[in-house]
Here is the input.
Amino acid sequence: MSELKKIREKQNLTQEELAEKSGLSVRTIQRIEAGTEPKGYTLKTLASSLNVSESELLMPNIQEVIIVQEPILETENNPSENIGLIKIINLSSLPFAWFPIANFLPPLFIMLINKEKSTIVKQIVSLQIFFAIIAPIIFMIVIFLKLGHESVTATMVILTIANVYIILRNAFQIDKTQELRYKLNFNLI
Here is the structure.
C-alpha cells in the first residue's frame, strides 16, 4: 500500500475529497497510490494538503520492498490489473447470455485483443466456456426426456437467467473486492 493511501485513509479522506482539497485530479491521486512517485509541485501540494512532510509521502514500506524483490506473481488482487477492462470483459458475455455456445466469444476476443491474461480474466472466460459446454447438455437432456415444449422453453429461460445472474453478480464482486464471486477451481484456457 502506498504511503499516500495510508495517510489519506488515516485522515478519513476519499480520493475525491483529497483531489478537491489539494486541487489535483483524482487520476493523479490514483496513479500515485498505484505506485507512481509524486514529484515537484504534486509532492509539495499533497504534503501541504495532508499536513505531513514530503518525506512521509516518499518513505518506502518495508513490506513493499520485500515484495518488489520477490518475483511478482499474478493474483486476483494484483493492483496492476486494469479493473475497468476486467469488468468490460466480464459484462461482454451479456449480449450472448441467451446463446450459450457463443457467450464466451466476446470476452475471449476482448481478452486476446487487449492481451489481458490475468488470472481473473482467464477465470471469466473459463466460466463462460464451462457454461457453454454444460448448458447445451442440460438442454439436450430435457429434450430427450420429452417433457414437452413448456419444459424446453422453461429450461432455456432458466439457463439464460442463471448465466445473466452469474455475469452480473461477478461484475458486482469485481467492483467491490476485485475478485470473482463465482469461479471454477481450474482454468480452461
Q: What stands out?
A: The chain has a mean pLDDT of 81. Residues 3-69 form a domain with the 434 Repressor (Amino-terminal Domain) fold (CATH 1.10.260.40).
